[in-house]
Every structure is written in structure tokens, then in C-alpha cells.
């Protein structure tokens, strides 16, 4: 047998060895080893750096949360107070980064005191701190993420998109926010805030997360392009001039009727009093 192998030329000997049934498996394993070695040589530095930066951001957010939020929402965001009369907040597990970015980014959180509705106020944290807290809450459980800028950028919105956004707004939003986005009263001391000073990012996040009394308009209810068209319509409302000269808060018949009552009826009463006074003076002069 050995003499037969020795009689083969080197090329035929190697060809015979390559035809072994396990040769394909050996080649496959060698290829995988080569690819893995190349990946280990070039990829891990960036991957480890990204993971380390994200972990550091989450850890920073956890520290900020423990100082500014845990007294109401629990040390692990599980909700509830601390038993010492502090405001009991809801669980934040699963609300996502978008809810944190909206509530903290509009100054509603941290809340100063309990009430029927937490009002908007000056922002307490920097943008980096808000991102860190949002990253920490998002790490607890999946939830709506902060939308990308192109999701709410309406700088190139067409008239067709604005018109479509107006139809969607009047269908889904005017019952609370008024036809002109000026806001309105709700039961039990609550209210829908004006949208005239709200950024496109926060309007998008509000639709995603449904803060306070607002319903959630998920992407299954209002698709991303629907949300963007609504933001385009609200932006157009801010630039729209009042055709009558006075907007009267754009509150509709209520403000118009109040204006008519106070001014119109008031002028009529003043005129009647003046006429009456003139008539008394005329009778006195004749006497």
C-alpha cells in the first residue's frame, strides 16, 4: 500500500487527499476561523467603545434618576412613593425613552407638587442629562424611542401635506386642543395645553406616548407620515394671520360671544345712560 502511494506523483497524491469526504468540512472550518480572526482583529475596538459609552450613559442616567425621580417613581422606576408623604408617581417600566424626553424636556418633570395636571415649566436638566435618563429608563424595558429628526421635520412640507394634516388634526385632536391648537378645558381641573409653543419633536412624542389625559396614537393608529402631516398643519397655524384682525384667542363662539356681550352690550348700556342723562337735563332746563 505504501509502495503504491509512493508511486503517485505529488499532484495526484494531493488531489487524492482533497477528495476525502471530510475535506469540505475542514475547508469550511478554516474559512470560519479566518473570518472570525479578521473580525476579532478589526471590529471589537469600535463595538466595545460603543457598548462602553452606552453603559456609561445609562449609569449616569441611573444616578440622575435616583436623585431627581426616585422619590416619586421608586428607586427602580417601579412606581409609588416612599411612604413619607411624597408624590406617588406611576411605574416607568416600559414607557420608553420618548416619554422621558417629552416629560423632562418640556419641564413637566420633575413635578413641583401634586395636582390634577402637571403644568409645563422651565426645563431643569440639560440635553445630555435628559438623554442619559431616557437611556436608563429605556434600558429597563422596551418602549417608544425618541423619534429621529426626519420624522418631525416639516421644513419641506407641501400644501397637500398641510391640508391632509389639517383633516387628521380636526378628526383626532380638536375635541381637546381646539380647532386652532390653542388648547381647551377638560373635566376635573384638567386641560389640553396649547400647541403653539410646542416643538415638532415633543408633539410627535406626545402622540407616541399619550401623556396625562391624551390617548396614545401609536404607529398602528396614526402612521409616521400622518404624525408628520399633523405637525406640518400645526406649524402652518402658527404662521396663519387672523382675517378679522383680532384672533380673540381663537376659542371660537365663546370668545366672540363674550366680546359681543362685554363690548357691544356695554356700549349700548352706556348710550342708554347718556341719552337718559341728556333727557333729564333737557326737562330741567325747560322747567
CATH superfamily of the domain at 149-249: Cytochrome c-like domain
- By secondary-structure content and strand pairing, the structural class works out as mainly alpha
**Strand count:** 2
Outline the low-pLDDT stretches. Answer: 1-6
Helix/strand order, N-terminal first = HHHHHHHHHHEEHHH
Question: How large, in whole angstroms, is the Cα Rg?
Answer: 34 Å
Q: Give the strand line-up of the largest sheet.
A: 1-2
Percent of residues in helices: 55-70%
Main sheet?
A: 2 strands, antiparallel
Individual helix count: 13
Which CATH first-tier class of the domain at 149-249 would you pick?
Mainly Alpha
The CATH level-2 architecture of the domain at 149-249 is identified as Orthogonal Bundle
First-last Cα distance: 156 Å
Strand proportion, as a percent range, falls in under 5%
CATH fold-level topology of the domain at 149-249? Cytochrome Bc1 Complex, Chain D, domain 2
What sort of overall outline do the alpha carbons produce when their principal axes are compared?
elongated
The overall average pLDDT, rounded, is: 82
Topology of this structure?
Blueprint: H1 2-7, H2 10-18, H3 23-42, H4 44-68, H5 70-73, H6 96-105, H7 127-140, H8 149-152, H9 159-172, H10 174-177, E1 184-185, E2 191-192, H11 200-209, H12 224-239, H13 253-286
Antiparallel strand pairs: 1-2
Helix pairs in contact: 4-7, 6-7, 6-11, 9-12, 11-12
GO molecular function: heme binding; iron ion binding; quinol-cytochrome-c reductase activity
Protein name: Cytochrome bc1 complex cytochrome c subunit
Organism: Kribbella flavida (strain DSM 17836 / JCM 10339 / NBRC 14399)
Amino acid at each position: 500500500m505504501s509502495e503504491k502511494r509512493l508511486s503517485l506523483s505529488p499532484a495526484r497524491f494531493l488531489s487524492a487527499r482533497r477528495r476525502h469526504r471530510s475535506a469540505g468540512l475542514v475547508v469550511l472550518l478554516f474559512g470560519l476561523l479566518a473570518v472570525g480572526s479578521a473580525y476579532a482583529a478589526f471590529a471589537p475596538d469600535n463595538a466595545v467603545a460603543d457598548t462602553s459609552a452606552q453603559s456609561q450613559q445609562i449609569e449616569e442616567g441611573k444616578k440622575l434618576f435616583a436623585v431627581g425621580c426616585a422619590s416619586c417613581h421608586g428607586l427602580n422606576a417601579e412606581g409609588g412613593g416612599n411612604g413619607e408623604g411624597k408624590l406617588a408617581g406611576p411605574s416607568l417600566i416600559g414607557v420608553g425613552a420618548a416619554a422621558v424626553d417629552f416629560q423632562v424636556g418640556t419641564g413637566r418633570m420633575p413635578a413641583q407638587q401634586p395636582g390634577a395636571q402637571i403644568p409645563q415649566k422651565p426645563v431643569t436638566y440639560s440635553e445630555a442629562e435628559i438623554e442619559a435618563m431616557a437611556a436608563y429608563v429605556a434600558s429597563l424595558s422596551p418602549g417608544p424611542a425618541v423619534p429621529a429628526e426626519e420624522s418631525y421635520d416639516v421644513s419641506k412640507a407641501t400644501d397637500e401635506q398641510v391640508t391632509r394634516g389639517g383633516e387628521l388634526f380636526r378628526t383626532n385632536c380638536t375635541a381637546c386642543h381646539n380647532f386652532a391648537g390653542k388648547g381647551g378645558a377638560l373635566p376635573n381641573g384638567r386641560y389640553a395645553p396649547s400647541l403653539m409653543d410646542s416643538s415638532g419633536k415633543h408633539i410627535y412624542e406626545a402622540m407616541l406616548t399619550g401623556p396625562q389625559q391624551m390617548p396614545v396614537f401609536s404607529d398602528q393608529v396614526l402612521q409616521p407620515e400622518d404624525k408628520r402631516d399633523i405637525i406640518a398643519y400645526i406649524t402652518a397655524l402658527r404662521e396663519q394671520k387672523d382675517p378679522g384682525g383680532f384672533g380673540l384667542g381663537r376659542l371660537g363662539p365663546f370668545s366672540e360671544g363674550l366680546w359681543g356681550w362685554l363690548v357691544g352690550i356695554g356700549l349700548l348700556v352706556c348710550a342708554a345712560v347718556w341719552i337718559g342723562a341728556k333727557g333729564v337735563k333737557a326737562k330741567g332746563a325747560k322747567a
